[in-house]
TrEMBL record:
Matches recorded under PROSITE patterns: PROKAR_LIPOPROTEIN
Species name: Mucilaginibacter gossypiicola
Gene Ontology CC, one term: cell outer membrane
Entry keyword set: Cell outer membrane, Membrane, Signal
Residue span, SusD-like N-terminal domain: 112-235
SUPFAM superfamilies associated with the record: TPR-like
Domain RagB/SusD: 317-583
InterPro entries named in the record: SusD-like_N (IPR033985), SusD_RagB_dom (IPR012944), TPR-like_helical_dom_sf (IPR011990)
Name the record gives this protein: Starch-binding associating with outer membrane
Subcellular location(s) of the protein: Cell outer membrane
Family: Belongs to the SusD family.
Length: 583
């Protein structure tokens, strides 16, 4: 499918004059050809109109991208992590300037924060409005137009949901399209306005979309995606951060969240998650026969599966994550490195936390008999990985010293990784970075069914307490992961169940853009992010081995960091744009 790219001549996030270009590359050094496509020529051609919508889809995963944050020269920046590196999941790959590092050190401010959330979301929202304006005249049959309009409205809601989780209340454009000659309003709508708008758009879009997409339409918006986005937005809206003037002050009261606190918001979140579950269209990918928890690993290698509700489609034969997360011997680079705190959050294979004296945890053999998700999510010393340009696997030598004829090498702690770990989550075990022989057809999850089950469990527990349905939702995930026994202890109270659910979210959804937002909406980031992070050094001398934790970085968190600052470049454009508190 041909894709349209927009080059901005006069740019403003909320409106501007766009010059349309199409890009064609003939070979690696092919020349880029620029044409003078106009709004009229784009929307009077059916192929161009379809490509215009496809281009809006192409950015849906930017917020969750593993290489989202970069450092170095503006013209050739180098990734050093995604939102995982701005949380207690991982450490940036290089101690150089980036938004992730600024969040780690507590130095984030309006002058240094990336503007990608603000810019990308409003650019795509404007594109949706252009499509909706011109779609009625496009030479496309009415059924397809109806589908395209519904997809576009979902995408508009999707981009607003990204804005809201970053900033709280933002300016709602409605269907307006501003040009560079217009006075562009920048005043923020309330948090409640924004939540209600997203819900309304999802409801309207869902009426004209199939419950799930299949075939050539797999990856496009569906009614299920609309319901799932509502589930996520309502869960956030019910959470402590956004209830009862949690951090808002002065002019930001009502912008940073609801001025009041209403427990019934948890009921709405519970009902929204239940609506996704009740469609019967989605299920966990289960395979404990091949190996305990194998369905969890296999899920992320399957391009089409029943667990993905909304996903970022990628070209077949990609190695996107391998290029970032695999160790140097596989030529991966510039992805963030997992922290010891995340490793310690994975329970034993019997479901008990390693802090439980009866769990069987052995600090002298810390990776033995653990929740299978640990090995599927984290590369630790001696994890086997596919060899580049050859068949078979070989262990990753992260140790310091000598073992099995090997000595400290390029993958070692303090050499290739600053924490003693690399990320394995969502990697295809048959794929290798920069290897044309070993690639994957994977796409990347943006909303999956496991999240919905955890959304339901959390909302229901907060509203009703630990009912049987709450137990069932959590235990379904633990059963899929191959825990034995997978059942939770009976008689948990609401606080205890809350702790279980929060830890399940931490390990089940690791590296999928959840932890950063979860600790904020729970309003516990002042505890989870005001820490000295830890790594693991494995010292080997033949058969002798010692495991030593070490300090990685002192993290700092301040109250302002519960929301992002609006970029200073945007605040400077209009006194109507009220900055978030603390910035």
């Amino acid at each position: 499918m041909k894709k349209l790219y927009f080059k901005v001549l006069a740019y403003s996030v909320l409106g501007g004059f766009f010059f349309f270009t199409s890009c064609k590359k003939d070979g690696f050094l092919g020349q880029t050809q620029t044409s003078n496509l106009t709004e009229n020529t784009v929307f009077t051609d059916s192929a161009n109109t379809v490509s215009f919508l496809a281009n809006i889809y192409s950015n849906v995963g930017f917020s969750a991208a593993a290489g989202r944050f970069t450092y170095g020269p503006i013209l050739s920046p180098t990734p050093n992590g995604g939102i995982d590196a701005a949380s207690d999941e991982a450490e940036v790959s290089a101690s150089a300037g980036s938004t992730a590092l600024a969040f780690e050190t507590g130095t984030i401010n309006a002058a240094v924060v990336t503007d990608d959330a603000y810019k990308n979301c409003y650019t795509n929202i404007r594109s949706v409005n252009q499509l909706l304006k011109n779609l009625p005249q496009a030479p496309i049959n009415s059924f397809v137009k109806t589908q395209m309009k519904a997809e576009a409205r979902f995408l508009r809601a999707w981009y607003y949901s990204i804005l809201v989780k970053h900033y709280g209340g933002v300016h709602l454009l409605g269907d307006s399209i501003y040009t560079y000659t217009d006075k562009i309003p920048a005043g923020r709508n309330t948090y409640a306005d924004c939540v209600n708008y997203i819900l309304t758009e999802c409801d309207a879009a869902g009426q004209d979309l199939p419950t799930a997409q299949s075939g050539v339409n797999y990856g496009r918006a569906s009614k299920g995606a609309c319901l799932a986005l509502k589930s996520r937005v309502l869960l956030y809206a019910a959470s402590p951060l956004f209830n009862g003037q949690s951090i808002g002050e002065g002019k930001t009261v009502g912008l940073a969240g609801y001025p009041d606190s209403d427990p019934k918001r948890w009921q709405l979140a519970e009902q929204a998650a239940a609506a996704v579950i009740s469609t019967g269209m989605y299920s966990l990918n289960v395979d404990n026969a091949t190996a305990p928890g194998f369905g969890f690993q296999k899920l992320f290698t399957k391009r089409v599966n029943t667990e993905y509700i909304f996903q970022l489609m990628r070209p077949t034969g990609n190695v996107d994550l391998e290029n970032l997360w695999q160790p140097p011997t596989r030529t991966g680079k510039n992805g963030a490195f997992p922290l010891q705190g995340l490793v310690d959050a994975f329970p034993m294979s019997n479901g008990k936390l390693i802090t439980d004296p009866s769990s069987g945890y052995n600090p002298n053999d810390p990776y033995a008999n653990r929740d299978p998700r640990l090995n599927y999510s984290i590369i630790h010393d001696q994890t086997p990985l596919q060899i580049r340009l050859a068949s078979g696997t070989s262990p990753i030598n992260i140790f310091v010293g000598k073992y099995n004829g090997n000595t400290t090498g390029p993958d070692a702690v303090h050499v290739g990784t600053t924490t003693g770990y690399y990320t394995n989550k969502m990697l295809d075990p048959a794929a290798v970075a920069n290897d044309f022989e070993h690639r994957t057809d994977r796409c990347l999850p943006l909303i999956r069914y496991a999240e919905i089950l955890l959304n339901y469990a959390e909302a229901a527990n907060e509203y009703e307490g630990p009912t049987g349905a709450v137990y069932s939702a959590v235990e379904a995930i633990r059963q899929r992961e191959g825990l034995n026994p997978y059942q939770l202890p009976t008689g948990l109270n609401q606080t205890e169940m809350r702790g279980v659910i929060q830890n399940e979210r931490r390990i089940e959804l690791a590296f999928e853009e959840h932890r950063f937002w979860d600790v904020r909406r729970w309003k516990i980031a002042d505890q989870t992010d005001n820490i000295t992070t830890k790594g693991m050094e494995v010292d080997r001398d033949g058969a002798a081995v010692a495991y030593k934790q070490f300090d990685v970085r002192k993290r700092n968190f301040r109250k302002a960091m519960y929301l992002w600052p609006f970029p200073q470049s945007e605040v400077a454009k209009s006194p109507e744009l009220i900055q978030n508190p603390g910035y």
